[in-house]
Design brief:
mainly alpha; two-stranded antiparallel sheet; 2 helices; 2 strands; about 55% helix; about 5% strand
Length: about 55
């Protein structure tokens, strides 16, 4: 039975017994400029709301 690359999230190396390897979805979200911009806008809106409540 073959293991999909997304399911193989642990790799052995000399320094660590188990280190996480991001799956294909996580790699895509970390490198996609459009998703990063959307995330940036959402975080800024949340910050504006929090600051607006305190003033």
């Amino acid at each position: 039975m073959a293991v999909k690359p997304e399911e193989f999230n642990f790799a052995r190396n000399e320094k660590f017994n188990l280190s996480m390897i991001p799956g294909s979805t996580a790699r895509f979200l970390r490198t996609c400029k459009i998703w990063q911009f959307i995330r940036f806008v959402i975080i800024n809106i949340k910050m504006i709301i929090v600051v607006g409540k305190s003033h």
